[in-house]
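Homework help thread (please don't just give me the answer)

Our assignment gives two proteins as sequence + structure token strings and asks us to describe the second one. The first is just a warm-up. Here they are:
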Amino acid sequence: SIMLLIFLTVLVVLIVFSAVLSGAETALFSLPSFTVKKYRCSKEQKKTLVAALLRSPSQLLVTIMMLNVFANIMVQNVVSHLFADTSSLLLKIGLPLLLTLLLGEIIPKSLALAHNEEVSLKVAQGIFMAQKILGPFRVALTYLTSFLSRILFFFLQTESLVSNKELEHVLKDS
């Protein structure tokens, strides 16, 4: 039916989107620092854009992760909808997991690592536009996660292996 064709098309688009994002992440973050320095001084707009993106690696990573998580959740939802009449968890959970892992993560990351410069230059403009569009959401998300991390790390602080008094005692006795 036409709805099946639409859902399959949306599924393919989402998997390709996830693959591009995963490849972009790997390609951009695997560029050697000397290449990024060379890009900063380049007269080619794409190269200077790659260098500009990597000046704020945390913003870049959060942008890519936001989009990739969205795409992967949508893959799960589309596949779950396609198999709504089936009670098989293998199809509803296993299939999207397999599709996301293989086609959306492992294969694109492997290819992007081998061709990091070419991939970085191809995705730079799209990632830059996504950063601009998602800016307010990224800032809010980063602030929230930073706040939660501070709270969690406060409660999860581990005891030091040697206390100050124990260290003083060892130093005095030696």
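The one we have to describe:
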Amino acid sequence: VNNYGYGVKIKNGKIFDQDNTFIKSFETEIHGLGKFLLYAEKNKKYHALVEFEDGSKQTFILPESNSEGVALSVKNNSEQDFIAFEFNTNLKSLNPNGSLIAHYLIHKNGKSSLNSIQFNKANLSKSVLLKKSEIETGINIITLFNKDLQPISERKFFNNYNFILPDIKLERIK
């Protein structure tokens, strides 16, 4: 993000571990949007060396990974009528009874929907499909909470349902 709050395209990004061993490359799209998967090893630290389009470089220390918790991913295909939310955990995250409850909130402009998901030893992954027609059009936020309703993860996503691009005409001023 630049000084004006806008995303910045990364021309070339590289992930390294604490021993400066190269792990993987990544780049972003024009507005600085992108993603990559990193299977972090326990007790290892990682950093990213980023080269921007203007040739400048910067190093970012990545946050340490947790061996317990719930991971959230959003799968949003503009051609489909639904958005898929995937929640994953591991055995280490389950309580002594072999279960784990988490909550998620989808919200935009004061409108919200709070739901719960429950994991157990036999089912460490949950997928939730929501119809785009039941979610606010535009940019929404999904927040993941632990059993005590403490926020642990958050993602923005765009719902294109009934989204109408404005009709814009440009004229050159002479």
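TA reply:
I won't write it for you, but here's a hint about the kind of observation we're looking for: The chain has a mean pLDDT of 91.
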